[in-house]
Hints:
mainly beta
Amino acid sequence: MTVSSYQAxxxxxxxxxxTIDPPSYLYIGLSTSVFTTDTTIVSGEPNTAYNYSRITIxxxxxxxxxxxxxxxxxxxxxxxTFPTSGSVTGYWGNIKTVFICNSTNQLLYYKTxxxxxxxxxxxxxxIPAGSFIIHRDSLIF
Length: 141
């Protein structure tokens, strides 16, 4: 995944001795939009009426969800499984980006998929355990 400008600024602020307030929760989501490093606010998520919702991770539960950081890299210790799309009108569209944001929708990290993934009715988007990787300056899976 790529680091957003917002998150890069937070990293530099911390590195230079500034204080940052870590979020209580992180959110992993899907988007039909393509983000850039200048994207600040998340957009293009599938409609919640079609049973879409983000994956919520309490940051104080991080040890249960993430691997131990090593060489500036952490990965998901658990699979990331989004809800099953709606059965009648559950088409989520062409998913182009997977992202991590905070509770105010500020983009932190994102990964543009090489090929969009269509999520039709009664389908799930899954990322296997260990495959969702955050590098100190990018997100990989």
